[in-house]
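help with these tokens:
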Amino acid sequence: MPSRPGPPSPRVLLIEDDPGDVVLVEALLEEVDPALRLAVATSVDEVLARGMLAEADCVLLDLHLPGTQGLDGLHALLAADGAAAVCVLTGLDDAHLGIAAVGAGAQDYLVKGKADGEVLIRAIRYAIERRRAEAGLARLREERLAAAESARLERGLLPKPLLAGSAVRSRSYYRAGRTRSVIGGDFFDAVRGSSGAVHAIVGDVAGHGPDEAALGALLRVSWRALVLAGVDEAQVLPKLQQVLVSERHDPALFTTVCTVSLDGTADGGCRALVRLAGHPPPVALRPVPCSVAPPVGLPLGISAGATWEPVELTLAPDWAMLLYTDGLVEGRGPAPGGLLWEEGLLDVLGRERGTGLDDLPARLVEAAEGFHGGPLLDDVAILLLSADDQPAGTERTAT
């Protein structure tokens, strides 16, 4: 059986002004590892002036060099390269100085005259591996902190529907298609306006990167601001398109949107006004699931003169409506080679009529993933609005 290759011979930089000590260290190291590459400098200033730290895996530093006192040389090296692996060389009576050097950032200290070749090479390899491990842990900590900060930011951008005081309840489901991301280009929101009507939106920014996710969050916040400011319902989409056009990073980028305005009627039902901008239509769940199909206008960002005509419908007192993005229906469907699409979603909703509204969004995703054979690849946003018997202000979100 061929032997496994050992670790590569390290590159060692010896900073020593005593020629006799240089010869001794060279001999000790060559006896143990003839392939080891040893460079020699007589002062820390020479090392820094010639940029020799970049070519060394480990530094052997004599603490008694001309022009330096105590740990001055060590401090200068670590100031130039905080990741340098340094072992210090001390005299027989300077063990306390070696310990202080380790506390200041050296990896180890060696006493001259007591370190043979095996001790030297072991200390060198230990210093190199320990420094690599420390650097790896530092990078891991930085990555975790950055990921946690990003996750906190993204969670803060997810909406909290503002429906307190209305007769409308919301359940939602959100999952980004990007790996290790909390939000994607899809977005949703629902708020109670100043007139008492409830307004809801589901949208999908074309694309899947972080820029699209940021734009989706911006559009959602802008839509909420327009609604809460009392902008006329018919003017919300034109103004949202202005925001998109001014903020998008790519002039070809567009966004599909579905908006719903809900206002109570005298008989306890609800009047709904639905507008589509290139987006899948919502589904009225009761008495049986059926698509609400207004004229489909162009997506936002395609044409400055685009219009979005609404469809108006009256919902019974026990109404429920499902808004979603196309990530839910663009996976594989039950038919070989086909996609789920709206027709397949209606079939799933028909089979899930006994499922409670609280559990329905997650059940729909489970069914879509079952047909697809695994996780859905696109962002998925689902907003389920209804009138029910829950206490006022109750809202549920599943992520």
About this structure: The chain has nine helices and 17 strands.
